[in-house]
Amino acid sequence: MNLTFLGANHEVTGSRTLIECGGLYGLVDYGMEQGKNFYENAPLPVPPNQIGFVLLTHAHIDHSGWLPLLFKQGFQGSIITTDATADLCGIMLKDAAHIQMQDAEWQNKKGQRAGSAPIEPLYDLDDVEGVLKLFVPCAYGKIIDAAPGVRVRFTDIGHLLGSAALEVWLKEGDTEKKMVFSGDVGNKNQPLIRDPEPIDSADYLLIESTYGDKLHDGGEVDRAAILAACIQKTLDRGGNVVIPAFAVGRTQELLYFIREAKERGLFHGHDYFPVYVDSPLANEATTIFQNCDPSYLDDEARAILARHVNPLMFDGLLTATTSDDSKAINVDNQPKVIISASGMCDAGRIRHHLKYNLWRPESLVLFVGYQADGTLGRLLLDGADSVKILGEKVAVKAEIINMPGVSGHADRDGLLDWLGKFQQKPGYVFVNHGEDAECGALVQSIHEMFGLEDDSPFSGSVYDLITGQYTYKAQGVPVAPKEPVPEQQPITQAQRAPETPHAAPEPHQAAPDSPYWRMLYSADALLKTLHTLGGAPSKELARIQREIEALTREVKR
Ligand SMILES: [Zn+2]
User: Fold this and answer.
1) Å from CA of 314 to ligand 1 middle
2) How far is the CA of 246 from the centre of ligand 1 (A)?
3) Lower Cβ count inside 10 Å, N or C end of the chain?
4) Average model confidence (pLDDT) across the chain
């Protein structure tokens, strides 16, 4: 009964963990790496067609984005997740496939001129259609048989609509262990979704650490009032409010607050000012939020629904679907609010709106989420005088504001608070989904506060849940720096900053029966054999060790 850590180890995207129980294999999340990449990930050590099931914590691409690739490579098992996550994956994976296909098309145009062979997209819409058929949606709170000897329960973790922590019971012979996967732990008091629910017990816990050493500023602020004040003053001076926002989750929060501010009478003198949502993905996500089972929503949202009011709808709300709709937004001079993606301004239609508004002192660019280093959003927040957008230099004269207290992730205290609610504390805690400083700090805090044994394994490490020991402890392999991407070129999906405040090695696309896979099986078989040699004579063990070291040196050469 093993756990193999495959991704989001000492970094915050590409969540992937392999479970091995009674000869069966299953994955918890199979995400894409996005944005900053610090360490190489270990490849999946078994062929995709031998993976029996995937348990999916939530729909963000850094947790779900490689599922179509898994399908393309032969996976035919079940993907068990909540109904809302399955619905969101339906639109987010299609969006990801479009981006992959556009990236490949652009690379091929460039490659054709250079005489290189065409490349395939990582996956396409057919792969997404195929993988979506494997989804098995379920409700929160029910114990489900995922595979023989594997049971799972999804608990609301308050990070995104449908997001869950997983309780997984693994049984091998007479031995049963309970493993809890936190997924991404949500921030308290977010609109629409509930706060993270507690879990009462675990033998082992894998917990995220995105903000493992940080506390969110802002505290309990009245975000509807702050947003209304920003909009009011900009409309008063005749400018536009441009809000770069993640399409799924953050955009719906903004609509919720604008509706609330209107109901509370916080706007004066601008009846029915237009609010454009310029992102097809955001508009599809809004529809899913509006149609989801009310049990996925928090008490406040359900109270609004009970008054027969749609919490995401108000007079003046307009949607742009086509690129012509998008371009038309900047044609008239009426002051307006424009919500568009991407949230960190490094791709998508938001760049077009920034080009039209950054040079106007009467306009406002309002940031409502984390801006990673190296993104256009970060440059603007850091006070750049001018920026290059779509090949043009644009002066920055607009007001730039960062809204406090907005995060989909629990901060350090939120993570510790959630762990503190376990009645029976885990015997061992693994910390992932945080950069070196963050995961290291959380490892230390968990040990100091609860006296628990814990660590943050690197990708490739294997832990035996029955013996409670690592059978292989990997070292972190730093990723070699890549060539910077010139501003004019489209950036690939892996280079793009993620839709969540997280920071790829090239995917291993080798076929399951390739020499590459066969080599990995042989290495795996060798490791298993070595584990049986505990009582062998020291001289013999030393000889084997020398031979392994010689082989390692040869492979490195
Ligand atoms: Zn997430």
Assistant:
1) 28
2) 12
3) C
4) 91
* Residues 453 and 164 sit within 8 Å (Cβ to Cβ): no
Q: With the C-alpha atoms ordered 539, 540, 544, 545, is the resulting torsion angle positive or negative?
A: negative
How much distance in Å is there from the Cα of 381 to the middle of ligand 1? Answer: 23
Is there a contact between 10 and 186 (Cβ–Cβ < 8 Å)? no
Task: Find all residues with CB under 8 Å of 40, minimum gap 6, and list them.
Answer: 459, 477, 478, 479, 505
Question: Could you tell me the distance, in angstroms and rounded to a whole number, from the CA of residue 480 to the centre of ligand 1?
Answer: 26
For residue range 225-240, what is the model confidence (pLDDT) as tens digits?
A: 999 999 999 999 999 9
Structure tokens at 83: 């109904």
Ligand 1 centroid to residue 13 C-alpha, Å: 9
Q: How many whole angstroms from 188 Cα to the centroid of ligand 1?
A: 15
Relative to beta strand 175-181, strand 204-208 is parallel
* Ligand 1 center to 324 CA (angstroms): 31
Quick one: CATH architecture of 2-215+408-504? 4-Layer Sandwich (3.60)
- 528 Cα–ligand 1 center, Å: 35
Q: What is the pLDDT of residues 370-409, one digit of tens each?
A: 887 788 999 999 999 999 998 899 999 999 999 977 889 9
Residue 298 is predicted with a pLDDT of 97
CA distance 305 to 302: 5
Q: Which fold has domain 223-402?
A: Rossmann fold (3.40.50)
Q: Using the CB atoms, write b or e for 478-507: b if 16+ within 10 Å.
A: ebeeeeeeeeeeeebbbbbbbbbbbbbbeb
Q: How far is the CA of 58 from the centre of ligand 1 (A)?
A: 7
Quote the ligand 1 centre to 29 CA distance (angstroms): 11
